[in-house]
Structures
1.
Amino acid sequence: MAKWLVALAFIALNFYAYHYFANEVVIPPRSEFSGFPETIVDWTCVDREEISKDVIRNLGASDYLLCTYENTELDEEVNVYIGYHETQVRKEGGGGGENSIHPPEHCIPGSGWDIIDLRVVDMDLPGLPGSPGEAKRAVIAHGDARQLTYFWYQSQGRVLARNHEVILYRMWDRATRHRTDGALMRFTVPIHDGDIEEAESAFWDLAGKIAPRIERYVPL
């Protein structure tokens, strides 16, 4: 009974915040990812991908970076996706019509990969707004192939991993700041010959160099 009451209270609070607290939408100024550097110290983007309009419409992102960075000295590559949502409520129609960031753990199986390990870990990257925070770390498999992926929500100066926290902060920010913008940060590294430590090292090296550049593209 208590769980039902909590669920009903949450739904009521969500409805109230979305329909009565803040109908105005504030979209903060930012730099576009078209200007994001393709060379970052010893990492170079060797494959900058464009996402089709249909997929972008499904994702709901208003701007994005999708790039495979390569480090020839380390002989490693890391695929980076940063999807920015200027609002997570569609501008037309007021409080209805969600345009929320899709949780990757829901999408990964649909792309043909199986999640064989998923955990919430501490995320401490100097220069990253909101760090230290939390991220999700997953090992995924497709046949014999393995990949390591880290992802988190970059939410107005916060680094969040837990979906319920993202929802609660989005409600709070809309009610108090008239903002629902945020981004999904995802780094994916191939695991070669089962060497997960090398994949970990590549992730931390590139993510640490990208972190101080994020604030221009994902506003506080």
2.
Amino acid sequence: MQTTRRTFAKTLSAVSLGVAALSLPLFAQAADTIKVGILHSLSGTMAISETVLKDVALMTIDEINAKGGVLGKKLEPVIVDPASNWPLFAEKAKQLIDQDKVAAVFGCWTSVSRKSVLPVFEEKNSLLFYPVQYEGEELSKNVFYTGAAPNQQAIPAVEYLMSKDGGSAKRFVLLGTDYVYPRTTNKILRAFLKAKGIPESDIIEEYTPFGHADYQSIIAKIKKFASEGKKTAVVSTINGDSNVPFYKELGNQGLKATDVPVVAFSVGEEELRGVDTKPLVGHLAAWNYFMSVKSPANTEFVKKWSEYAKAKGIAGHKDKPLTNDPMEATYIGLHMWAQAVAKAKTTDTDKVIAAMAGQTFQAPGGFVSTMDKENHHLHKPVFIGEVKADGQFNVVWKTKGPVQADPWSDFIAENKGKKNVPEKK
């Protein structure tokens, strides 16, 4: 069958018109939305903690869109799964920035994932909002840290353990997952404890890999260490799904909070979902928010999340909706970014960074959250909660108000003279 030049031209013209017709709505749609990236592990060892952050980010985006979006445009989420694979976080970050053209990214949990993506955001001058407590010792103009620095969680928690109300602990087990956050946090805590007169012989450190599941010998070692006379406490920086076997073994060996209290920095309501918490009553967690915090803003936040989780059929949450600290930090971060974009009247990175300085937001935790004008960290209150039989936390101690973050800990000698202002690169 022969095709004449005229027939071919007509066909090509028709095809071109068809492609153009198909393309116009796509271009129009792209122009009418602002894309934001969601970079969380939805599979692998960290999915137990991170999946719900993806969901609360989507809820927050829906909430912002229901009020008209930003700059007259709806926010469009782009979700990727780096699958608890640290190098893959960097690849997915590049994809979000280069291919998907997102205006900002909300994501990461572990510090190793944040360290993996940091060069990407700095090189491409893009924005990351990081919603989890971390070890400090970092300050980037391209990152806003909406979780806690060590002086907003780790230091107050150990001070509490040493106080009369916290049990007057004199010996410490620093137990963590083997990566940068636990090791650096424990370096800070060792120096802090030394400054408080605690000898090296009264501190032990233990580390386990991601996904570790057998805590029998470690719990036995803790019991032996605690039996040697002085009041002992455990500081846990275990991350991810390893928390489930750790707490189960704690219950199995009958290590009660009255004997050896455990204070956790990465265990909240979500991580305790799969654990029988009755044997764990009285053990502690230090955060900047708990679901049980009583405030009108928190009542509204929990209600919104409960309705959203049920409507979307979110696994686990449609029957038992839970909120936690990194969820609150994600919620605050997204709202503050939207406010900064509105103030800057653009999604341009440098202009949004300038507009983020001093942003405020009524946090579910019952305080007005403020983004520091210089160091890209939130001013946050500190809460210490005891595990209750129902997996919730009873707040037993809190600061009088928000605490200003100190990213460069005074307990690390090399930090002397370092400025709390991100360097321009």
3.
Amino acid sequence: MLKREDELLDILQLIHSENVGPVTFYKLIETFGSPSAALSEAQNIRKIRLCPRSWAENELQKAQKTGVKLLAYDDPCYPANLKLIEDHPPLLYVLGESSLLQNENRLAIVGSRHASINGRKTASRIAYELSERGICIVSGMARGIDAAAHKGAMYACDRLGETIAVLGCGVDIIYPTENTDLYHQIAAQGCLISELPLCTMPQSTFFPRRNRIVAALGLGTLVVEATRRSGSLITARLAESFGRRIFAVPGSPADARAEGPNSLLKNGAILVESAADILRVLPKTVLNAPLSKTHPRQKALVFATNDANLTAQTTSSDIKIIDYLNHDGVYVDEIIRLSGLTPAEVALQLLELEMDGRIERQSGHKVALIK
């Protein structure tokens, strides 16, 4: 067995031992010097009951067979900003493009599971606009705002936009099941991560842990629709405690889903109506950073940091692309050619049609009206 595999087994065994969480894990490492040494000493600590080595070996084998990468806290590819929080996961399970974790230009978008149509469209549009400018969108793959943000991000950059989904279950578990297609799309185009063992089913206690990862990964967190007791507000509060920027989309006082964002705005969050409001306050070092080279077909993009540039690229045309669609499927390139619209304008209209449930994506870069 390779030395690195032995080290991963030590980490797996230690972090999944009884009464060993991330904070205790790092205290043991600090005290004894390494996971291997900590394991040797931990068996003498009365409160700790070591996880069987056989379980760790089986877990590593399952990950290797399913194409899941185990990313340890000491790996050079481990996200630098995640390591800044005290209880960062000692081990991340990663499915998909693990290189996305190296793109430090990330922003979290979260919100209500029971989002309005307008809320979902807003989340998708902002995610799309940010993704077009090299920002990787992070969310939790829940129904509602999370799903809309992931979809909007992946529509960008000729449908090569980057997104990271942080799961409150094993990375090999699809939850909710209605997001099955989204799960597979993110696995192919973005990446899915979790700190939980494979085959772990979702539980309510896992989601606050998931939220801290979402909050820590982003340069900031945008909240789109959330009630006062929403987990999205927990994510925002965590992000604030980590020194991240907090953004919120305002809503009607008559809508309970606006209570969360409106309360954040009262307490100093940055009001957001479009991606321009976010780009305007991000550090210049972020906006001038080189874009990810994950996808070889990705076009070189230029950051737009003012309202004029952003508006020029995202203004909708009077031309409606639905007139060019049918039930059998049409190539997106053909829609662009026939309509005379820019790829960005076509992508935004397709995004809205998909959010309305009027079209479906097909293989080969085609879209079709839903019968």
